Amino acid sequence: MHSRFVLPLLAAAIASGQTITTVAGNGTAGFAGDTGQATQAQINRAVGLVTDANGNLYLAEELNNRVRKVDTGGVITTLAGIGTAGFAGDGGPAAQAQLNGPLGLCIDGSGNIYVSDQGNKRVRKIAPSGTITTVAGSGSAASGGDGGAATAAGFAIPIRCAVDKSGNLLIVDQGAHKIRKVEAASNIISTFAGNGSQGFSGDGGQAAQASFNNPTALAVDAAGTVYVTDQSNQRIRRIDTGGVITTVAGNGNAAFSGDGGSATAASLNYPGGIVLDSSGTLYIVDSVNQRVRKVSGTTISTVAGTGTAGFSGDGGAALQAQLNNPFPITADGSGNLYVGDVSNNRVRKITGASTRPGPTITSAGVTNAASFQTGIAPGGIITIFGSNLGASAGQIVTAPGAPWPPQVGGVSVTMDGVTAPVYRVLNLNGQEQLSVQAPWSISGKNSVVVAVTTGAGTSQVTVPVLGAQPGIFILDGASSGATHSDGSIAGASNPAARGETLVLYLTGLGPVQNTPASGDAASTTTLSPTVIKPAVTIGGFDSAVIFSGLAPGFIGLYQINVTVPAAVATGTVDLTVLSNGVTSNTAKIPIH
User: Fold this and answer.
1) What ranges do the domains of the chain cover?
2) In residue terms, where are the NHL repeats (predicted)?
3) SS3 at position 319
4) Res. 566: pLDDT tops 50
5) C-alpha–C-alpha distance, residues 265 and 539, integer Å
6) Residue 458, Cβ neighbours under 10 Å: how many?
7) pLDDT beyond 70 at 111
8) What is the DSSP-derived secondary structure letter of residue 522?
9) Containing H/E element for 283?
């Protein structure tokens, strides 16, 4: 009888592809192993997790007073904290700062990592440069300060955080039973949810008037909907963009029940971390139940854990694995889940949980990023159009800076197997597109196979390669494609003059001298002129090209310095660029 139930369960887990492995921690509590493989390192209460756009994993280790990083090669290092509890280091390198019991991590679209430095009653920010600063909290344990600067506010227990689509920082002030909000534009703090009274009330009304009981974790979807773990109420609650709060999981009883049925009728037992995957599916760490549970639509199920505390199952089905006091959870852009298996002193990875369909590239959907003409040129910026191109609907992720990485938001692109540096993933309001640089190494080919890979699969198409395919960037949102030498746009209110030198910004002009590495910015000290000199026509007249090459300090962006012919007519005239037999899109230039 027993085997008849276990075998179908195991078969289902294997069929769904949900497997579990350890990615950090050797099972011994402590601090050791930096610069080595994370699976051989000692960690100590990794109670906060987050991933970045490049697939790196970050751990907040409460008892080590550190934030550590596991890179995509599995190597662990310390990002922040010297290991001694205290408060020091703002304005300097995070690795030389002191933290005090860090509990939670979150990340914004620019790659800034926020640390709930709970013992210091602050939230601190680690910039991509490695500099640490305080963005919220004065150090006072008296919750307050609404309406003023976030750095002057007090927190009872700033336990977890999240960043919404507008860059606003949400902070769980657990001891005050509130969710606080720091406006990105003004750094003013306010109460987003919770009336400060410990209890359960308010469903169906405004979240600011609701009662929580030890709120613990946050997740925000692409639309701006906020999910809150209301831990001692044994519920997960949802706050819509209108501020209305409801319960989406948990019936209020501390128990285990309900799999296969309505999530609001199910029992949870001190839920911890929550995260949303690319399709909007909600995952809940059901801590005392030693499980990870999933809410898809309104139905709840278990995706990891047998319900018995212990350590087992690596390399097998997640449903057959044992967890021990799991708490934090995060997801990467490929749909993998990471769970802090706290009492096992490990972080474990669950693959195959994402339900988002695989990507599809639109027919003729690989184009010049400026002209949107089909085909690509070496080194140019291209746009790829399609469906399910990102890890999530509504996803907008941009590379934090130069060089552009091989992966952004869990999305990678190759051309004949060569990595194409990724700048942006944009999946918003039904518009799904990627911005990438064509590798310089495709020069000389007639065509390449362009492949887009996400955690849900790969789509590929064959695309023609041209020696050059000029595309002019339209600068004023309407028609103008040129600037004056001072950088101002040559538009209707600021027209060009005959004999003046204008600057055009383009992509797709092909190979250059002094070629930078793919994904790297052009040198600001040594020019990179184009191998093929383009021809520019303004108002029907050939125009003298003074310079054609990469724009210094930019990636995949070209500039042409060109003189407006003396014979050109006044008024708005056409401007085109011809290179390697290919004519660009048409820009308009007003002449006076």
Assistant:
1) 360-464, 471-591
2) 93-129, 212-242
3) helix
4) yes
5) 71
6) 13
7) yes
8) P
9) strand 282-286
Task: Indicate the average pLDDT of the chain.
Answer: 92
541 CB-contact burial (10 Å; exposed 0-12 / middle 13-18 / buried 19+): middle
Burial class (CB in 10 A: 0-12, 13-18, 19+), 243: middle
Name every residue whose Cβ is closer than 8 Å to that of residue 268 and which is 6 or more positions away in sequence: 234, 235, 236, 249, 250, 254, 256, 284, 286, 289, 293
Average pLDDT over residues 350-363: 80
Confidence grade of residue 532 (pLDDT, cut at 50, 70, 90): very high
The residue type found at 147 is G
Strand locations in 332-380 (E): 337-341, 346-351, 360-368
DSSP state of 484: -
Q: pLDDT at position 85, please?
A: 98
| CA pair distance 564, 568, nearest whole angstrom | 7
Asked if 560 and 534 count as a contact pair (C-beta separation under 8 A), the reply is yes
CA 510 from centroid of its chain's CA atoms:
30
pLDDT band, residue 384 (cuts 50/70/90): very high
H or E segment to which residue 547 belongs:
strand 545-550
The 3 state secondary structure assigned to 171-209 is EEEHHHCEEEEECCCCCEEEEEECCCCECCECCCCEHHH
Query: Does an H or E element contain 10, and which?
Result: helix 2-16
Length, in residues, of the chain: 592
Report how far residue 546's alpha carbon sits from residue 500's, in angstroms, rounded to the nearest whole number.
Answer: 12
Residues 6+ apart with CB under 8 A from 73: none
* pLDDT at 410 (0 to 100): 76
- Which pLDDT belongs to residue 395? 67
Query: Which residues face 302 on adjacent strands?
Result: 293
From first CA to last CA, the distance across the chain in angstroms is 90
360-464: CATH topology is Immunoglobulin-like (2.60.40)
- Asked if residue 262 lies in contact with residue 269, where contact means CB atoms within 8 angstroms, the answer is no
Question: Does domain 471-591 sit in CATH 2.60.40?
Answer: yes
Model confidence over 39-55: pLDDT tens digits? 999 999 999 999 998 89
Confidence bin at 13 (pLDDT 50/70/90): very low
**pTM of the full structure:** 0.70
pLDDT over threshold 70, residue 231: yes
**Residue 299 has which token pair?**
């139905």
Identical fold, 360-464 and 471-591:
yes
Query: Are the C-beta atoms of 122 and 155 separated by less than 8 Å?
Result: yes
Q: pLDDT digits over 23-35, tens only? A: 999 999 999 999 9
Run of H or E residues at 87: none
Cα separation of 580 and 203, whole Å? 65
CB 74 within 8 A of CB 89: no
Q: Which residues contact 174 (CB under 8 A, 6 or more apart)?
A: 156, 157, 158, 159, 214, 215, 216
